[in-house]
Amino acid sequence: MTSPHLSPEELKALVRTVPDFPQPGIQFRDITTLIGHHQGMAASVHHLAALADAAGAQKIAGMEARGFIFGAAVAVQLGIGFVPVRKPGKLPIDTIGIDYALEYGTDRLEMDPGAVLPGQTVVMVDDLIATGGTALASAALLRKAGAVVSDALFVIDLPDLGGAERLRGAGITVNALMEFEGD
Ligand code: AMP
Description:
Elements: H1 8-12, E1 16-19, E2 27-30, H2 32-35, H3 38-54, E3 59-63, H4 66-78, E4 81-85, E5 96-101, E6 106-111, E7 122-129, H5 133-144, E8 151-157, H6 163-169, E9 173-179
Parallel strand pairs: 3-4, 3-7, 7-8, 8-9
Antiparallel strand pairs: 1-2, 5-6
């Protein structure tokens, strides 16, 4: 069932690049092929869990939707709880939320205000960081709920889009399993 873990280089080879999706000029880094590969998924979770453990994670937060896939698996591996950071209108309770700017217009993220305890160390997990807008908003929301957010983990970083730098500017340590040039 188990086998030696694939390296980040081997994991990178499992990500499918789809040109011009969802619009011309975007190179879409598709993790469907990575998560469909058992050893690829297992090794991704293994590497992310080691980083989250080193960061002292008491809870893992994942951003909807692809952050749920990796984040929930990391939380299970570490034996800690998972906090979903959700798109608006999904949770059946009174939520706390944050609006954030997109290139055109705004978007919103919401969470259960009781999902973290004050002072709890929450490590964020998502599949990919591009401009960092989603991760910065998530960090602000989790902090509003009382969490200590000092680390964010990604499978993929697109460093040319500057998101990791923006996060570091907000006092968050960023780690990713791989990088792709360009956008
Ligand atoms: P951002 O808020 O700009 O950092 O965008 C991050 C989110 O958008 C991630 O959760 C990704 O799922 C998605 N995303 C942005 N750019 C790409 C891309 N080139 N390939 C795949 N997903 C992307």
